Amino acid sequence: MSDRDTILSTLRQRAKGTRHHPGPGPVPARGKVAGKERAALFTSLAQGASASVAQAATAAEVPSLIAEYLRQNNLPPRLRLSPDPRVKELDWASQPLIDVNVGAADAADLVSVTPAFAGIAETGTVALASGGETPATLNFLPETHIVVMKESELVGTFEDLWKRARDRFGENWPRTINLVTGPSRSADIEQTLLMGAHGPKRLHIVLVND
């Protein structure tokens, strides 16, 4: 046998044995929070990563909060919404001056609104699962990405995120789960920080108290 055959044979024999997952590694104490403390940590770290965060007492407030965000940032009153019911079925009729469209984004869309699979308090990160109702183009093509998320969708740590994903998806995982911390940025060229280098220039999160 060649060296290659020996290595492959060894790997095959090992693969036949019992597979044992060693379990999670050390979990940072910072992420071991719950309730309002978890929401406060997530908000603080998301803002520290240059995202903005608004608090909504109920889901009914979300459209008006987004309308105010558009006005404050001098953005056009046009939104591309995720087909997900958590976004599409909000009371957009309460904001008649906003032009609302639903579906995947293209290069002409400047502002998108999506839900999140989860938010990670440990780092202020949002986890975005792709799918028919959550096209990944909405996360990256528009210059401004608005994420609507319930406080109950926050987890403490990355370990908590992957446990939630295993429980939720089983063997039918989405094609991608994108982890986004703040707006896109890069300092690759002459060490000059450029916002929106590989995605949105702005990330705005509306956190709903549920």
Question: What tags apply to this protein structure?
Answer:
single chain, 210 residues, alpha/beta, six-stranded parallel β-sheet, four-stranded mixed β-sheet, 28% helix, globular
Please provide a written account of the structure.
By secondary structure, this protein is an alpha/beta fold. The chain has helices at 3-16, 35-48, 62-72, 85-88, 137-140, 158-169, and strands at residues 52-56, 78-81, 99-102, 111-115, 118-120, 125-129, 144-150, 154-155, 177-180, 185-186, 194-195, 202-208. The chain has a single domain (32-184, 195-208), classed as NagB/RpiA/CoA transferase-like (Rossmann fold). Helices cover 28% and strands 24% of the residues. The strands form three sheets. The chain has a six-stranded parallel β-sheet with strand order 1-12-7-4-2-3, with helices on both faces. Strands 8-5-6-9 form a four-stranded mixed β-sheet. The longest helix is centred in the N-terminal third of the chain and has 14 residues, at 3-16. It is globular, with a radius of gyration of 20 Å. The model has no long low-confidence stretch (mean pLDDT 90).
Determine the number of helices (DSSP H or I, runs of at least 4 residues). Answer: 6
CATH class categorisation: Alpha Beta
Number of domains: 1
User: What's the CATH superfamily, by name?
Assistant: NagB/RpiA/CoA transferase-like
- Overall pLDDT metric: 90
Query: Might you state the CATH topology name?
Result: Rossmann fold
Number of strands: 12
Q: Alpha-carbon distance between the termini?
A: 64 Å
From N to C, what is the helix and strand string? HHEHEHEEEEHEEHEEEE
Strand order of the largest sheet: 1-12-7-4-2-3
Rounded Rg: 20 Å
Report the CATH architecture: 3-Layer(aba) Sandwich
* Share in β-strands: 15-25%
**Spans with pLDDT under 50 lasting ≥5 residues?**
none
Global geometry: globular
Sheet with the most strands?
A: 6 strands, parallel
Q: Structural class, judged by helices and strands?
A: alpha/beta
The level of helicity is: 25-40%
